[in-house]
Amino acid sequence: MDEKLFSSDVNLQLNAGRTWNADLDYRALFEQTGDCVFIISMDFRILTVNPQASRLLAYSDGDLDGRNLDDVLVMGESARREMLLVRRVNVFEHTLRKKDGSLLPVEISASVVHNAEQKPAYIQLIARDITERKQIERQLQIQNALLQAQLDASPDGILAIAARADQTQWT
Question: Has this prediction a pTM greater than 0.90?
């Protein structure tokens, strides 16, 4: 991992005399978060990833360093460049490709980090696994379709009023 990405001599005094050691505390945030963290160069090469990203995508530590972002982010280069650099979309759902080729649905938060001269230095991309959320969404869609089919097939008139008055259904 590139030490320059986390270097700082900042020690802040916190409540109760505890100090914030930026070098150690930022490293702990990077390495121990449950989300996948990717540090990407401006030419879309992976500079480094945190252990969770390696684990979730089934790579060994360091295997992703230096690879093109296209190896894991399922998106064409022009669309990726447009989304991250031009439109600056901060949070979006997308798909990552694991080492075995299987796909992983994720929610991505991306931001361009600027250097001291206010020039783009690198892209910080944080990805959260949303597999469970997608499964629940599919189950809800199936349940809603079944309920709608039952309503449509009923010979009796049915009026359903939800707690919110704007959610009314009838057959």
Answer: no
List the structure tokens of 29: 């945030």
Task: Mention every residue, 6+ apart, whose C-beta is less than 8 A from residue 62.
Answer: 54
Return the structure tokens found at 163.
């707690």
CA–CA separation, 92 vs 113, rounded Å?
18
Element (H, E) at 161: strand 159-161
Spatial contact of 158 and 171, defined as CB atoms under 8 Å apart: yes
What's residue 165's pLDDT?
Answer: 62
69's CB contacts (< 8 A; 6+ apart) are 38, 40, 44, 45, 46, 80
Q: Provide block-wise average pLDDT over 10 residues at a time, the chain (171 residues).
A: 47 52 71 90 93 95 92 74 66 89 92 90 92 92 88 78 67 60
Locate tokens 């100090």: which residue?
A: 19
Q: Say how far apart CA 131 and CA 22 lie, in whole Å.
A: 33
CA-based nearest residue to 122, from 27, 53, 65, 38: 38
pLDDT at 20 (0 to 100): 54
